[in-house]
Amino acid sequence: MLLTLASGALFFPGLFALSSWALRRSRPGWTDDDCLTVATRLVSSVQAVLATGAGLTIICSCSNVVSDRSSGENLETSLLAASSQQN
């Protein structure tokens, strides 16, 4: 999980920097604001597509999204984890 977080922390700012640089080079007539706006929307679109894909994966892999749990977790272990965090 930490690796995924670190990857996202590097990927999305890198995508923003690369796309804003490429837009400045390919569209010299555009202002910096135009390039930054398009780069921001591109990164937001990529994040939305990835979030939608993750949601669809979860929905397709569970028979009941509300009550199904993954990795062997059941109600007892979930309640145990919740009670230990409160102490």
Automatic annotation (TrEMBL):
Keywords: Signal. Residues 1-17 form the signal peptide. The keyword Signal applies. This is TLC domain-containing protein 3A isoform X3. It comes from Mesocricetus auratus. The lineage of its organism: Eukaryota, Metazoa, Chordata, Craniata, Vertebrata.
